[in-house]
Amino acid sequence: MAQPVNAVYAPIPTVPPIAQAYPMFTSVVPVQVPAKWVQVSSISPELWGIIHSSNNYTIRQHVKLLPKTCCACPPCVKQENTYSVYAGLTQDSTAEILRVDEKSDDWNRCCCAPYHPLRLEVRQYVPTPGDAASNSTDHLQNDVFKDWSTFSPTRKQQAIRDYYLRYPVLMSAIRDDGQRCCRCPCKLLQSWVCFSCCQDGVHVYAGDIPDDGTEEIGRSQESPARTQDRLLGRVLQPNFGGWCIPTLQLHSGPDSDSNQPFGKVEGPCCFGGWSEFCFDFKFFVSKADSEKQAGDLALITKKKPAGAGGFIAELCSDADVYAIEFNQGAGLSADQKLTVLAAQLLIDYMLFDGNTKKCENRDDAIYCYCFYCSIIGNLIPCYICIPKNQN
Questions:
Q1: Are 110 and 68 in contact (CB under 8 A)?
Q2: pLDDT digits (tens, 9 = 90+) for 363-382
């Protein structure tokens, strides 16, 4: 009898030490994970030490061109986002250490993306067949191949994905609710940030925060696992959203004064649209009491496309590439660095993941969006209007 495809991938092997796969990390000293998080998360001292010691990170959003399903309800809904996180002791030497998978309700994602409620599950990266790509063109081909294979008779690719998702969740980043499809209560995120119901944000917890069964997938607002002793950090959009500078506040876990942020993220006034092909966009991570855009903690950069593969990915999808460079003298702990990573992922949903489209075809004209400005948290486009010939 033929062996099922996914039988090849069971049982789950032990995750190998990262230094065994990447010799660049052999010099990293393991750091003990705080005792309160050991019981709920499978983070190893080795991985915690790599996160603590690495000052250079690259985050690559996977290209997903095809819808999740075509003949289901809701039809042609977009797939959940997936991110690969690379870390390195230097800019010239990085390796993938984490994989981030979005969990969200199909109807919310269909009607309200990218402002929908979601949960991001962070797992240690485990090499699987087809994941050895190293440049933008290879990644583009790899991701497209994965999408097409899910619609083919073979179950091999789906078995690989299912196999990976069986590994334990190290951390969970939960959005502070969002816009929901025909449900209340919900937030009003696509608007001026004048009240708490308009503020975006995310909480980062150690371990898995499963759905409680009474809410749509990924919302997890009432999950009993959301306890303060599991909180790694949180990111909050301030009231008025930084006025003309998109701003996020960074807070540590429950051991610190939750009302006093340890840092802030301040971005550019103009971004997105066709300008994404030409410019990098810098988001400065500074101490809470530092001057505007001081960048004395870290620098988050949304990268412009690199090469033909990056140009195609930017043109045809919402997949982006980010870099985070931490200041070596800032002395940030591992959980604070993970909070900065959560802020970067939130920035992608807030400002780039479908929010800042490049063109729009309307009945009266074609609109080409040059860039967008953030005014009190609302995105205002600067565009060129090409009227259609009415005759």
A1: no
A2: 889 999 999 999 999 999 99
Neighbour-count burial for 150-182, b at 16+ CB within 10 Å, e otherwise = eeeeeeebebbeebbeebebbbbbbbbbbbbbe
Q: Taking Cα atoms as reference points, which of 190, 188, 115, 109 lies closest to residue 374?
A: 190
Mean of the per-residue pLDDT values of the chain? 85
The model's pTM: 0.89
Residue-level pLDDT at 385: 95
Q: Are 102 and 118 in contact (CB under 8 A)?
A: yes
Rounded to whole angstroms, how far apart are CA atoms 47 and 51?
Answer: 6
Q: Which amino acid is at 49?
A: G
Q: Per DSSP, what are the bridge partners of residue 236?
A: 201, 249
CA distance 51 to 327: 14
Rounded to the nearest 10 degrees, how much is the dihedral formed by the CA atoms of 169, 171, 173, 174? 60
What is the separation of C-alpha 341 from the centre of its chain, rounded to a whole number of angstroms?
Answer: 8
CA of residue 176 relative to chain centroid, distance = 15
